[in-house]
Amino acid sequence: MATLELYTKGAGVWVPDPEAVWVSATLLRDYNPGDEQLWLQLQNGNEVHYSVDSPSDLPPLGNPDILEGENDLTALSFLHEPAVLHNLRVRFLDYSSIYTYCGIVLVAINPYDQLSIYGEEVIDAYSGQDMGDMEPHIFSVAEEAYRTMTREERNQSIIISGESGSGKTVSAKFTMRYFAVVGGAAQQTSVEERVLASNPIMESIGNAKTTRNDNSSRFGKYIEIGFGRKGDIIGANMRTYLLEKSRVVFQASSERNYHMFYQLCAARELPEMRSLKLEPPEYFHYTKQGGEMQIPGTDDLSDLERTRNAFTVLGVQSEQQMELFRILSAVLHLGNVNIQASGRSADRSYISADDHSLAVFSKLLGVEGSQMAHWLCSRRLAVGGEMLVKPMTGQQALEARDALAKHIYGQLFTWTVQRLNSALRSQKGKTKSFIGVLDIYGFETFDQNSFEQFCINYANEKLQQQFNRHVFHLEQEEYVREELAWNRIEFSDNQECINLIEGPLGIFDLLDEECRMPKGSDENWARKLYDQHLNSKPHPHFGKPRMTNSAFIVFHFADTVQYECGGFLDKNRDTVFEELINILKASQSELVAELFQQQGGAPSVANGSVRSGKRAAREHKLTVGFQFRQSLQMLMDTLNSTTPHYVRCIKPNDLKAAFMFDPQRTVQQLRACGVLETIRISAAGYPSRWTYEEFFSRYRLLLRGPQSQDQAQASCRQALPQLIPDTDQYCFGKTKVFFRAGQVAVLERLRYERLRVAAVTIQRHAKGWLARIRYSRILWAAATIQRYTRGALARRRALTLRYTKAAIVIQKTYRMVVVRQLFLMIRDATVTIQAFTRGTLARRRYRQLIAERAAVLLQATVRGWLARRAYRRVRAAVIFMQCCVRRKASRRELLRLKAEARSVERYRELNKGMEVKLMQLQLRVNQQARESAALRGTLHAERGAAIAELEALRGIIQKLEYQRLEKPPPSPAVSEKEVEERRRAEEKAAQEILRLTQEMQALQKDKENISKEKENLTAQLHEKERTQNACVQKAVQEASAALQSELDEEKMKYQGLLRELTRLEQRYDNLREMNLLTERSRGHGRTDSAQSLISEPLSPCSTPLSPQSLTPLSWSPFGSAFPSPEEKRRISVTSPTPERRISVWSLESPLDQLMEKMDVAKDPAVKKKEEDLEYAYDAVRVANKFLESQQQKQQTEWKDELEDLRNQLSQKICSGSSPAKKRDLWQLLEAREFECMRLRRELKELRHTATLRHLLTQVSLSAPTTETFCAARPKPAAVAGLLECRKRDETKLIKNLITDLRSEGALALPPGLPASVIFLCVRQADCSGDQARALSLCSAALVAMKAALTKQTSDLDMTALWLKNFSLLHDLLVQHSPEQSLDSDELVSMTTDLSDLIRSLSVLCIQAYQQLLSITETLLQKLIVPALLESETIAGLSGSAVKLVVSRKRAGSDPRPLGADAPTMASVLRQLRALHTALSRQALPQSLAEQAFRQMTYLICASALNNLLLRKDMCCWSRGMQIRYNVSVLEEWLRSQDLAAGGAVATLEPLIQAAQLLQVGKKTDADAQAIVRTCTALSSKQIMKILTLYTPHSDLDEKVSLNFIRTVQELVRGRSDGQPPQLLMDVRRAFPVTVPYSPPPALSADDLVIPESLKISFLRRS
To answer: CB of 104 within 8 A of CB of 1450?
Structure first.
């Protein structure tokens, strides 16, 4: 099938458009050879006719939709300009991807926005990865260059080009930053810091704002970054090209001068800058011409501070910086020097003597102002051997002033570059290889093009030629490697244009010749160009404008450019008068003199020439063009000797708007930068390349005969001639099959036709099967309907018969009911009449009886009242008489008692009686209380008996009722009257029941309403309570999370400091070892390694590992210096030995504080004998014990009594006692509570007194002076089960037990044996009283263990062994420290202060833990991506899911291991299992293992997810299933090892959700909402990136539509999940670690099993 047959109805094509350059259209009819028109429909729906004169005029075909947004332009099926432009636009606008590959070229589009894709986590993700596997990025190019350099040991170059504003400088900065991070991560050196520090300096003095770019580089630079043998940066060198010095004196509209001038003006108010006499930029002529004083979004003052810091990093002292700033300020003041014309014809000029700007200029540069004013307006000429001084006109003087300013700035720029190179020069020896970064201007064309544009375009011609030849060379290398029979590819070579510029009698030669002429001019040079290249020998790349004779045209490879000849000669000469240079040479400023003295000694000037009066000297000066050609040729030689890598920067629009794409500007740059040339060269050969396996998997349905994956090559060779008859359209290689452009589309068309025919066949059979099934269902439905119809008719007949019989029965029953109702009505009327008559007679008799009884009762009442009134009168008279008699007798008795009361004896007798009475009353009260208790008990018993009896009676009643119901009711003869009465009673009862039922229903409704209201109120209350609880819980969680994050951050900072300390100590050890080697080489004696290690000081630390080691007794009543009374009492009373009686706190200061608190005056101490002290101490102990027991007993009794009173009170209140009794009870309760409060105060005073007595006893036990204390201190207690090491054997012990311990024998030792032995030896030394030896032995062991850990930086088992020993020794020392021994009566504390060593051990524990993780991370890093992402764990899942076009590997990429050599999940689990085995073998705590595996799983998740987010080939459905299965294998293993509780599984959640995102549906709004709900652990950027990269894995899948992506973007934008906004996870994040403190069991030497291999039998057991 030919390519012409692809022009069928529905095919997509590209047609030219004046605005959009190319627009997409669809064919409405098939194209047949010979047709003159194509019927097309544009995107906007318009139909057009496209003229076709020949098949070559057909519009370019569009690529399949599956290739839209491809990250490599050469992977497109059709390679042409519209396809490239459309692909770049889709990636830039729809996917926000600014990087795209084009073969070996990286196309970078400036987004004019800050993107978070350049962090350290991105550098980590690209480090060590193949260029073809990752998404396009500037870091990918840098990594490719770095890996090629280290692997092939060949120098590399990265060529970054593009027009102004396209982002060249930023790309170069990020490239250098990548090399600084990758090449300087392992070594502690400042070279990479100095390399990065050169960027702000060069930007300040070499960048300026232009109309196209706010930070445009106005010079070219090539930076060579030198690397050592280990791949680390050891130096750098910078070369610059063609500084635009004319910008110093002139700026176009809306442009600025170099940034440094505006930075100095912004800092004019600083104290050190006031001497420069600076003003705002509007004041100076050299900074105000463009009208732009400020760049939006930049701060010149902060930029100057950044530049000064960079100078400091590079070793430029502040004095030299101020000298540099003075020279720059002098240039600004020079521009304000006022030169005035004089003379009749204005042929002279002068400068006023009081010119302020000249005075400031002269002062800043240290030159004579009068001489400078004279030679700015005059020049010296040599005439006939004599020197003449000729005045200059005002215009000539201005030109001389500007030339001097440019020359000064050029010399300062050159000096700065040299100073940077000297600071960046390698200090570590010869550079092994280097990577060069070329940041050079792109092709430029303006309305007015001058000498600068000509040189820039000439450089781009040379670079384009080198680029074309390199691309062609790579293409041919691929064909040779595959052993193809190929013809030479022709490509456009611009050698003719280069010869026009640099060849003999070329433009540069004629320009230099004209510059050497005494009266050379731009017009004469233009005429020579016309004569040479237009008239004499017409050149195809040279032309002349029609309307002018002062310009010429050059047909460059990118565009046709017209150059104006005006100013070419002056810019090429770039001269400055010698007299002005001599004045500057005599400057008092050292830097100014150095700048121009160097120039005087050099054979030529770097950036121009010095014009003097001698012609011979002037003729030998080098022009700017000649110097530029020389430097450019050196650059090309360097690039040709290296392996180049290309970055082409594209400026998408001229408005500097973020993510705005102008197709006209973009296609213009694509043509200029060589991207389309790369595509043309690729299209000229075989651009589409497939391996035989990929081709077989994709097109196996087109092959015939038996098919096998093992014979894929043979099948392809056999089938392709039948599919593509033209053998020139494809070619077979060794491992690949190559196709011409468009042939893959032909194969796709054949594949589509084969699939379409197969689909039609399947549809035919499926439709027939469906029709037969439908007929069977209709037949079955008809029979079913008939059956149901007949059944319905039969049922209707039966129903009619049933209704007829029912009507007869109803008539019979109705007639019987009517007759019965009539009979009952007559009978009821008769009975009613009888009842009313009998009732009337009975009521009349009843009223008569009531009247008679009322009369009798009234008579009885009246008679009784009269009798009672007579009785009361008689009783009142008798009582009055008795009262009078008794009053008289009482008065007599009162007189007698008063007389007796005056006697003392009587008073005593009364008192005695009162005491007895009180005692009796108390006994009576007690007896009544006992009786009350007995009565209460009796009452309870009676109540219980009554309840039991009641229950028994209820049981009997129920039993009788049951028996009554079972027995048949008797049927006695009932009379008619009784029947009538019973009937009436039943009717009355029925009415009453009906009424009660209605009332009950009403009450039930009310109850239901009330219940509903109650439920509603309860629900509202619960809802409010839940809301409040949720708010409180949320607030608590947020506060806890904040505190936890702060704690984690502090821990991470602390651990970071520990890592930094470890690295510094490693450097110190390395330097010390080098020093020892140097001393040995000089002849010094050999020193024992163990002794050298012992003499090493311990590392300082600030924080202990566990809080138990420094627990302050902050709850003591006397502050942190005193223990609590309970703890002191426990020490003093329960201690069985006198050794524990010595306090661990100070003796004098606590006593002074106590006496100050208690306001006790200090008395002189009294010496006592030892026996008296012991007796006094024992007495105090007994008194304290007695007081304590008595207080506890009283407190218990009071609590019980108070509880009883409360119970009594509650019972009496519940029993309904009288108000008076309640009041009495409450008063009694209040009195008891007051009594309790009084007793508590007494208890507190007693405790305080006991504490005071005990502390005074302690002070009395100790001596009043220091000498007495030292003499009287008891000897430490002897502890059994220790090991004794003699002083002379300590070195041998450390050497055999720690230093010489090897992994072969160490792993067979019991866990923590070295730490146990060291502790027993230290404990024995402490118990013997030799604290200094205990401290030195422990310190030496600690230093030796630390050195042993440092040597085992790659041994997992040994690192775990030392971690166990560090933690065990730490726990033992903490356990036997004085602070911890107070809590246990069984432990005897150590007297030696080892708190500093405990803190050092805690630090070493963390260092050992970090080293353990570092070893595992190193082993896992190269396994994570191949095992989790690339391994085919589920066999055959993605075998048939081959993408349409597979990205080609770069030439320098390493091949991935395949088959059995490829890492799998078993490899990852093997490393994790090794870590778990190492931890388990040493019996380390489970919590520590959980923390370690949490860190490891986070590393696995972060590395895999970052790689997934940067690889398009991984974002498909089948790969998501593979990843999910691999992660589930890891989860299952973690759970089987009981490691899931520590958060190891939770850290895998982002990777799990990413795998699920690849598998879920991505079409509807419901799918979008499900994605947002599910992917809570992924940030919004990560979700959008995965959706953007998603690639269909087969023909049944589809790409994610842009509308769906925008829907998800809107949903995640409103999600407040607290996820960080970054794209990639931080691989370097370290979780804070906590080594748990677990007190070990009692340790004894008898329990240790010490093997003979350790050779420590010299230890003695004690």
So the answer is: yes
Nearest CA to 1058 among 1338, 1346, 845, 1320?
A: 1346
Helical residues (DSSP H) of 65-118, grouped into ranges: 81-89
Would you place residue 35 in the very low, low, confident or very high pLDDT band (cuts 50, 70, 90)? Answer: confident
Which residue would you say has higher pLDDT here, 1066 or 784? 784
Mean pLDDT of the 199-205 span: 90
Residue type, 491: F
Among 329, 355, 359, residue whose Cα is nearest residue 340: 355
CA distance 376 to 528: 34
Rg over alpha carbons for the chain, rounded to the nearest Å, is 54
CA neighbours within 13 Å on the CB side: how many for 1052? Answer: 11
Q: Are 227 and 432 in contact (CB under 8 A)?
A: yes
pLDDT top residue among 745 and 654: 654
Cβ count within 10 A of residue 1315: 27
Rounded Cα distance between 830 and 849, Å, is 30
User: Distance between CA atoms of 1220 and 945, rounded to whole angstroms?
Assistant: 32
Cβ proximity of 120 and 1628 under 8 Å: yes
Alpha-carbon distance 668 to 560, whole Å?
Answer: 12
Tell me the residue type at 1359. Answer: T
The Cα–Cα gap between 623 and 427 comes to 36
In the DSSP assignment, the letter for residue 677 is H
Sign of the dihedral through C-alpha 1203, 1205, 1208, 1210: negative
673 with 442: CB under 8 angstroms? yes
**Reported confidence tier of residue 983, pLDDT bands at 50, 70, 90:** confident
**Average pLDDT rounded to a whole number, residues 673-678:** 72
Distance CA 348, CA 190 (A): 57
| 1522 touches 1438 (CB < 8 A) | yes
Q: Which residue has the tokens 């990087």?
A: 99
Q: Which two tokens stand for residue 524?
A: 């004469």
Parallel/antiparallel/unpaired status of strands 233-241 and 220-227? antiparallel
Residue pair 1595/1563 in contact (Cβ under 8 Å)? The answer is: no
**Around 575, how many Cα atoms within 13 Å sit in the side-chain half-sphere?**
22
Report whether 1497 contacts 1537 (CB < 8 A).
Answer: no
Two structure tokens written together for 1484: 């380390």
- The residue with greater pLDDT, 1150 or 225, is 225
| Interacting residues of 1146 by C-beta distance below 8 A, sequence separation 6+ | 1121
Closest CA to 275 of 319, 317, 228, 243: 319
Indicate the range of 89-98, 335-344, 1035-1044 predicted with least confidence.
1035-1044
pTM above 0.90, yes or no: no
Q: How far apart are the first and last CA of the chain?
A: 99
Q: Which of 1517, 1527, 1574 is nearest to 1548 (CA)?
A: 1527
Strand ranges of the sheet holding 542-543, from the earlier edge strand across to the other edge: 542-543, 551-555, 560-564
Name residue, tokens 């009539």.
Answer: 822
945-954, 1371-1380, 1464-1473, range with the lowest pLDDT: 945-954
Report the largest interatomic distance among the alpha carbons of the chain, rounded to a whole angstrom.
182
> What single-letter amino acid sits at 965?
L
Q: Cα separation of 1461 and 1395, whole Å?
A: 52
Tokens matching residue 1137: 């030995």
Angle between helices 1486-1509 and 1517-1536 (to 10 degrees): 170
Backbone φ and ψ of 1118, nearest 5°: -115, 25
Q: Are 1405 and 1492 in contact (CB under 8 A)?
A: no
Which pair of structure tokens corresponds to residue 772? 């037969």
Spatial CA neighbour of 444 closest among 565, 566, 563: 563
Up-side HSE of residue 324: CA atoms within 13 Å toward CB?
Answer: 25
**306 closest CA partner among 200, 173, 194:** 200
- Sign (positive or negative) of CA dihedral 270, 274, 276, 279: positive
Q: Which two tokens stand for residue 164?
A: 């102004």
- Judged by average pLDDT, the poorest of 539-553, 1030-1044, 1123-1137 is 1123-1137
